[in-house]
Write a structure and sequence with these properties.
heterodimer; A: mainly beta; Rossmann fold; Neuraminidase; 2 domains; six-stranded mixed β-sheet; 4 helices; B: alpha+beta; 60s Ribosomal Protein L30, Chain: A; four-stranded mixed β-sheet; 6 helices; 42% helix
Chain lengths: 438, 181
C-alpha cells in the first residue's frame, strides 16, 4: 500500500514551485521538482515554536522541509495533514505519527534571548523506535538564520542518509540579459537560489566560473577588453586580479585540489588550444599538451596528479587524461559516442560527468571510470556544464527551455530531477561550490 | 575531423579557388577573364564615345580590382556545421579583403570567430577560433601580414541570432571581419 506521503510526492512530480520569486530580484532562481523518487522517506518538519517579540525572523521549519524535499530523498508531509504540532519532546505522540506513516518527526523552537540574538533548537525523532536520534542548539541572528537553518538541514540529512548535506553550499552561475546592450552577470547564490549576489557584470561575455577548493575565490573568463582573459576574484572583498591575458585564448580555468594551481587553456596567436598549468601567485606556467587539435576544458583528478580534458585529436571531441608531472602522453578515457566534452570528476573520484551526444541531443552523462559504463542522466536537447554537488549526490547543469537557458539538477543516480528557473534572462554555466570553509 | 586538417583543407580549397579565377596581368592586378576583358578591349578601341555623361568610369585604386568595394562590404563569413572549412563562394570576398589590407598596410582586422549553441561552451570557443584561424590563414596566404590580423573567439557567447532553429544556427556559425586603424 502506498502511504499518503508518497502519494503527495507523486502529486508533486509534475511541477511544484517551492520558492516564490521575489518581485524585485529577477536574478533569483526558482527551483521545481520535475522528477521525484519513489521510496522517498516520509518526514514531518513541524512548524517551530517561537518565543519572542513580534514575528519570528524566518520560518525555519519551512526552510528545512524545502531543503529535504529538494534532495529527492525525503517526502515532507504537508502541514495541513499534521495531526498535532508538537514543539517539545514530551508532546510528540508517536502513535499518531505512526498512523500517518511518518518515519521521522522534526520539532524545534526559536527563542529570542537578546537584541538580534536567537537560540535555535531542533530535535529529530525516529517514529518507529520512539526515540530521539538527533538534537542540536545554535545561536543565530536574524541575518544568519537562513544559514543556520540550512546547517540544521545538513545535519538532519547526514544523520538520516549517512551522506553529508550540501544545503549550506552555494552556486555560481552566469546570467545574460539581451537588450540594447547585452548584460552578462556572474552571480553567486545559496544552493536553494536565495540571496543572489552579482559579483561581476559586463557588456561582454563572462564565462567558465570555477571555485577555489576553499570556496573563497572564483576564477572566471571575461571578454571585457574584447579578448579573453582569466581573472580571480575574492568573494569576501570583491578584489580581483587578472591572472592570464596571453595572446589568443585564455579560457576554461580549473583549480587544483590544493588550490595552488590553475589549469587553463591557452592558444597563442596561431590558435592552437592546449592545456597549461599556472601558479597565479608566482606567475609560473607550464604547458601540458602539444597537439594541433583543440585541447580544452581541463579538470583535475581528486589527487591532483592528473588532468582530464576535452580533445578532438581523434576527430570529434573526447575526454583524455594526462599526468600533471609529465612526461607521459595523454590517454583516451571515453569511447562511447561521438561527442564527449567538458569533464568534471565526482568528489569520490569514481565518476566523470560529461556533455554527451545522445542520438543528436547534447545531454549530461556520467561515466563510471572503473566499469567504463556511460549513463545518460538528462533528457534535454542542449544540456551542458555539469557540476557536482560537493557530497556527490546531485549534478547541476544548464539546459534550454522554451528558447531560454535555465538550470536543472539531477541526482547522480538519475532518479530525482529539478528545474531551476530564473525570472529574467538566460542562466547558464552553474558551478556548485565546495563545502564552506569553517 | 581534426582542426589542423580542416585548416589545411580550407587552405587547399582556397588556393584552388584562387587559381581558377584567372591569370595575373603583368601590372600585378588580377586579370578577369571573359566578358570583362573583352569589354576592356572594346572600350579602348572606341575611345571616348563609350563614356557618355553620367555613366562615368569606375575609379579603381592601385592594387584593387573593380567590384572590390562591394566584396569588401561583405564582412561575415558563414560556415557549415562542425567545420572550419571556408566555402569556395567566399574566395573572392576574402581576396578583396586581402587586397585592401595589402594596399593599406596601416589597416588592421580583428577576426571574430563564432559557433552555434550546440555542445559545450569552451569547446565552442575552440571551434570559433578554428574558423577565425582559417580566415586568417586565407588572408595571409594572399600576402596579408600577420601583424595586421588578430583573432578572437566568442564561441557561442555572442550569437547574431537567438533561437534554436537550423536557420539561427547557420547565422551564428560565422567569422566577422572587423576593421580598425
Amino acid at each position: 500500500m502506498m502511504n499518503s506521503a508518497l502519494l503527495r510526492l507523486i502529486r508533486l512530480v509534475g511541477l511544484v514551485t517551492l520558492m516564490t520569486v521575489s518581485q524585485t530580484g529577477n536574478a533569483q532562481l526558482r527551483i521545481e521538482i520535475s522528477r521525484g523518487v519513489s521510496g522517498a522517506v516520509p518526514v514531518a518538519v513541524v512548524p517551530f515554536a517561537y518565543e519572542g517579540r513580534g514575528q519570528p525572523p524566518l520560518d525555519v521549519a519551512g526552510l528545512i522541509s524545502d531543503d529535504l524535499l529538494r534532495s529527492g530523498r525525503f517526502a515532507p508531509i504537508d502541514r495541513e495533514d499534521m495531526i498535532g504540532r508538537p514543539t517539545a519532546a514530551q508532546d510528540v505522540n508517536f502513535t499518531d505519527w505512526r498512523l500517518l506513516k511518518t518515519d521521522y518527526v522534526v520539532i524545534g523552537r526559536v527563542v529570542e534571548d537578546g537584541l538580534d540574538r536567537y537560540q535555535l533548537q531542533f530535535q529529530v525523532f525516529d517514529v518507529f523506535r520512539g526515540n530521539q536520534v538527533l538534537g542540536y542548539q545554535f545561536q543565530a541572528t536574524a541575518g544568519n538564520m537562513r544559514a543556520v537553518g540550512h546547517r540544521a538541514a545538513d545535519l538532519i540529512f547526514e544523520k538520516l542518509t549517512g551522506i553529508p548535506g550540501a544545503f549550506s553550499t552555494r552556486v555560481a552561475y552566469v546570467s545574460v540579459v539581451r537588450d540594447q546592450e547585452d548584460v552578462y552577470r556572474l552571480i553567486v547564490a545559496d544552493a536553494d537560489g536565495a540571496n543572489p549576489v552579482i559579483i561581476a557584470e559586463s557588456s561582454k561575455p563572462l564565462m567558465s566560473p570555477a571555485w577555489s577548493p576553499d570556496g573563497r575565490r572564483i576564477a572566471y573568463v571575461s571578454f571585457e577588453n574584447n579578448r579573453s582573459a582569466v581573472y580571480v576574484q575574492e568573494l569576501s572583498t570583491g578584489s580581483r586580479k587578472q591572472v592570464s591575458a596571453s595572446p589568443g585564448i585564455n579560457g576554461a580555468p580549473s583549480y587544483s585540489p590544493d588550490g595552488r594551481w590553475l589549469a587553463l587553456t591557452l592558444s597563442g596567436v596561431d590558435g592552437n588550444l592546449d592545456i597549461h598549468v599556472l601558479n597565479p601567485a608566482t606567475g609560473q606556467k607550464r604547458r601540458l599538451t602539444r597537439n594541433p587539435a583543440i585541447d580544452t576544458e581541463p579538470a583535475w583528478s581528486i589527487d591532483g596528479k592528473h588532468i582530464y580534458f576535452t580533445s578532438d585529436r581523434s576527430g570529434g571531441p573526447q575526454i583524455y587524461k594526462i599526468a600533471v608531472e609529465g612526461p607521459t602522453s595523454p590517454q583516451r578515457v571515453t569511447f562511447e559516442g561521438r561527442y564527449n566534452a567538458r569533464p568534471r570528476i565526482s568528489p569520490d573520484g569514481g565518476t566523470l560527468a560529461v556533455v554527451h551526444n545522445d542520438r543528436g541531443n547534447y545531454r549530461i552523462a556520467v561515466i563510471d571510470l572503473e566499469r567504463k559504463t556511460t549513463q545518460v542522466l538528462s533528457d534535454g536537447r542542449q544540456d551542458e556544464s555539469p557540476s557536482f554537488a560537493p557530497n556527490g549526490s546531485m549534478l547541476i547543469y544548464a539546459t534550454g527551455s522554451g528558447g531560454r537557458g535555465v538550470l536543472a539538477a539531477v541526482s547522480t543516480d538519475g532518479r530525482v530531477k529539478q528545474s531551476i528557473g530564473s525570472a529574467a534572462g538566460d542562466v547558464r554555466e552553474p558551478a556548485w561550490s565546495p563545502y564552506p570553509a569553517d | 575531423m581534426s582542426r589542423k586538417l580542416l585548416i589545411l583543407l580550407a587552405m587547399a580549397v582556397f588556393a584552388l579557388a584562387a587559381c581558377s579565377k584567372g591569370g595575373t596581368k603583368p601590372d600585378g592586378t588580377e586579370g578577369a577573364e571573359g566578358d570583362a576583358a573583352a569589354a576592356g578591349d572594346y572600350s579602348s578601341q572606341s575611345g571616348l564615345e563609350t563614356g557618355t555623361v553620367g555613366q562615368g568610369t569606375e575609379y579603381v585604386e592601385a592594387g584593387m580590382e573593380p567590384g572590390d568595394d562591394a566584396l569588401i562590404a561583405e564582412t561575415v563569413i558563414y560556415f557549415d556545421f562542425d567545420t572550419a572549412r571556408i566555402r569556395t563562394e567566399y574566395s573572392e570576398v576574402l581576396a578583396a579583403h586581402a587586397r585592401r589590407l595589402g594596399v593599406k598596410s596601416d589597416l588592421a582586422v580583428r577576426l571574430e570567430g563564432h559557433a552555434d549553441e550546440r555542445g559545450s561552451r569552451e569547446y565552442n570557443i575552440g571551434l570559433g577560433e578554428s574558423r577565425a584561424q582559417a580566415v586568417r590563414q586565407a588572408l595571409m596566404l594572399q600576402g596579408v601580414s600577420a601583424t595586421q590580423i588578430t583573432t578572437v573567439s566568442y564561441g557561442e557567447e555572442r550569437p547574431a541570432v537567438t533561437g534554436s532553429s537550423e536557420e539561427a544556427w547557420e547565422r551564428n556559425r560565422r567569422v566577422e571581419i572587423v576593421y580598425s586603424e
